[in-house]
Design goal:
By secondary structure, the chain is mostly helical. It folds into two domains: about 220 residues, Rossmann fold; about 80 residues, Tyrosyl-Transfer RNA Synthetase, CATH 1.10.240. About 55% of the residues lie in helices and about 5% in strands. It contains 13 helices and five strands. Helix 1 links the parallel strand 1 and strand 2. Helix 2 crosses helix 3 and helix 4 runs parallel beside helix 13. The two termini are about 35 Å apart.
Amino acid sequence: MEKRPRLLTGDTPTGRLHLGHWVGSLENRLALQDSYDCYFMIANVQAFTTRMDKPAEVHANVLEVALDYLAAGIDPQRSTVFIQSEISAIAELTIFFSMLVPFPRVMRNPTIKDEIRDKGLGDNYPFGFLLYPINQVADILAFRPEIVPVGEDQIPHIELAREVGRRFDQLYCGVDSHTEDLDYVKKGGLFPIVDVKLSHTKRLVGIGAPDAEGKLLKMSKSLNNAIFLNDDADAITRKVMAMYTDPKRLKATDPGTVESNPLWLFHEIFNPDKNWVTEAKERYKAGTIGDVECKKRLIEVLLHLIEPIRRRRAVYEKDPSYVLSMLRAGTEKAKEVASETLSLAKAAMKQHYF
């Protein structure tokens, strides 16, 4: 069989997956399973950066994410799903890569700053929280992928992986610094300079109200503004009917605003009937259609997407041994790839002794 290019991405197990995960990466993963050699990581070590005191919760969430993967359509026959903490080569590569990144470079990562602010961590976070961007570099480079499908908020992490890949290949493999990114392996480098695969939706907002500055917040379990991939019809109906829309619209006949309105952002992303969306937006702005009617239509759209996922999940929930066997097989396969990368990296660094 023709060798397929490799793909790596994953999720931190902080709970069940939601629609933000779907549009951010999951939808892309399903489309790429046949054209790429896919590796999907459940990053439980990274969960400890903010949940070090909740190990049982992290353990349970690993299985929740695995169930969501299967329910969404990740096929273990075509893709490899594995658990991060079982791949010791990632931890060793994290240490080596940390020598290639200056501390100020880590602190310039806007995602780190955003998480410190959004989670209210202040100065009260472990050193591992600052180390996790390097750990994420190791997650990626351990599998030497060509592409990494992620949401927009992960771009700074991918750029750091690209920097470390270049630095390693130049320092230890003799690749000229003027080499084009696509040619690094061809010129003797160990690590491909990974490319980002973004989804068609940059960022999915949550269903709740904006913050004090009027900014819509992204969908998040911790912000209690998420619609999950295993929500039933009652939960989806309740959440959509309570969705934040246009606070200035006091009654259905008032003209409504569609810009920065989660109701219409969701319709634009999820509703396949683009003609209805276009016409209904104009009617909404004219005050001839109300929130309730538009929300009921959105409920139908989301049920059409989520209900098959929820039903598949219910089947897998009845067979936990299958889920564990899938994770075990995937982890063993991932371990072989990462161990080979570590061996090649240590050889390039002249750190093989026995």
